[in-house]
Amino acid sequence: MNALFPWLLFLHVLGAIVAFGPTFAFPLVGAMGGREPQHANFATRVSAMIANRLVYPIGITLPITGAAMIAVTGRDLTSRANWWLGLAIVLYVVAFAYSYFVQNRLVRRAIEMTSNPPPPIAGGPGISTPAGDPPGPPRGVLPGTSGPPPGLPALVRRIQRGGMATTLMLLAIIFLMVVKPQF
């Protein structure tokens, strides 16, 4: 084995942990933002900043260290014995491209939609409540507003589905890289 390989493997695994480890927390951050709508924009901006400052820049180093490991080991990607590596590479390209070009755009749109408060409710600044309830709007609605912007719930569902798909691809890549299944 080439003496450079352990160093490349170290950098590759470290990059994967640093880049993609935080993405497993995104659903938790999103759920917290959903339970507290007044903080949803902040939660979404935090996730976007982590993606733009950690996930994408460090994630792009993985093909570099991966290609270097393939080069120093002389691994043949056309060999049937290495089918798992070819599949993992394809899944990585699809997941990374979808996340960067589609998911990133959707998240930016959600941030834009939630950056300004919704319009006031027609007929008055507050919402009347039954006797005994605390004054103010129902849970999840900002005071004096009519709720989330139109289209936001559908956009959030689309972002969630995209996140689930990329997470499943990431898990499949990890499985392939660790198990290296053979036929």
Any overview of this molecule?
There is one protein chain. With 183 residues, this protein is mainly alpha-helical. It has six helices and no strands. The mean pLDDT is 88.
Number of helices, counting only DSSP H or I runs of 4 residues or more: 6
Q: Average pLDDT across residues?
A: 88
H/E order of the elements? HHHHHH
* Uncertain runs: none
N-to-C terminal Cα separation, in Å?
25 Å
Task: Please give a handful of descriptors for the protein shown.
6 helices; mainly alpha; 183 residues; single chain
Quick structural gist:
The chain is mainly alpha-helical and 183 residues long. Helices cover 65% and strands 0% of the residues.
Task: Write the topology of this structure.
Elements (H helix, E strand, L loop, with lengths): L4 H16 L5 H10 L4 H20 L1 H13 L9 H32 L37 H28 L4
Helix pairs in contact: 1-3, 1-4, 2-3, 3-5, 5-6
